Every structure is written in C-alpha cells, then in structure tokens.
Amino acid sequence: MAICHLPAKEAAMLYDRYEKDQLLFNMNFKEAVGDKAAYRGELVVIEGEIGDAQGRRNAPKAVLKQGVSLAAGDKLVFLSGSLDQLDLLEPLLAKYGPDFTEGTRAILFVVNVAKQVLFDFNGASVELIPLQDGMTWNELADLIGYEKEDFKGQTASQKVVTLVDGLNSRKPKLDKLTLAEVMGLATDAKREARGAV
Q1: Which of 41, 61, 114, 150 has its CA 20 to 30 A from that of 50?
Q2: What is d(CA 10, CA 14) in angstroms, rounded to the nearest whole number?
Q3: What is the domain range of residue 65?
Q4: Does residue 190 sit within a domain?
C-alpha cells in the first residue's frame, strides 16, 4: 500500500483524535516518525463511567494491554497488543476497525483463544495468537527473530517502524476464518498470575 508523505502534525492526527476521545491510557509515548506516528501504551476497549461534571471518565473497564501501533494520517497501519478475553475482540474492532485499511496488519495476543488464527476485517489482515504470559513487544520481535541489536541507536518510534517493517514481510500460513468462527474459539484459559503465591 502506498502511503503519501505527511508532515509530522498530520502523521499524528489519528492519535491526537484518540487522545481527545480519551482512548489512550497509560501512555508510554506518542510521536511522529517520518510520515507516520507511533504509539506505545494501552488503548481503551470499554470506557469507564463518566466520573465528574467535566465529563472525565473513571478508569476503563477493559483495555488493549501493552499496545504497539503505527498510524499514517487518520488510518492505522499496524496494531498489536494483548487482550485478556476473546470477547473483547468485537468491542476492540468496533472502536478501532473503522481506522483499518487494506494495508493494515493487526497481531493480537489473546489469553483465551484456542489456536493461532487469521481473519479479515474491514480489508485488514488480523492475526490472533494465544498467549497467557509474555510481553507484546518481545513476542512480536520473536516472531521475526529480531534481537536488541536490530534496534540499536534508534529512537522509541523508529524501533516501532523497524519492528512493523519486519513483521510486514512475515506471511503466516494459516487458514482464514470468519469473525463468527473466531468468536467460537474461546477457552477457559486465564492470564498467568505474577508475584508471590
């Protein structure tokens, strides 16, 4: 997909809108990189209740954890992160799917999906990978065999571009399912607890 070159202000347009709509949560960073913009942090899937007269919301009820994404203008180029439950997939797609294009790739780690699957949504290729424990960034780098040296000397946003470029050349050989079929793949798996037992 050819992406036109955009000035920094326009490159970050999508995340500016998300921020205005209070969809960015626990933000690590949001910054323009060339003609795109990168974001690492959580994305709100289900908003919290309105908490005060100014319209500020309470903490979200559900988020896409450890999010890694890349945007160009008002469209998502890449989206990844971790969902605690498969039933959060549809609300996630309802909220962010309109910003997908045919060139968008999404790789979502889902705690309770039975197997690795692929499906199309709004022209985008969406891959789900079962994962009870692990860090999104590390898992994505592992998918293409990238090590710390592959990101040496790069800014945080440049690292996202490097990772996404690598992932775009990856072609998983999986059967494509429909969204309805995917939603039937929930298991009883829970995220592995950390800390003292």
Answers
A1: 41
A2: 8
A3: 8-172
A4: no
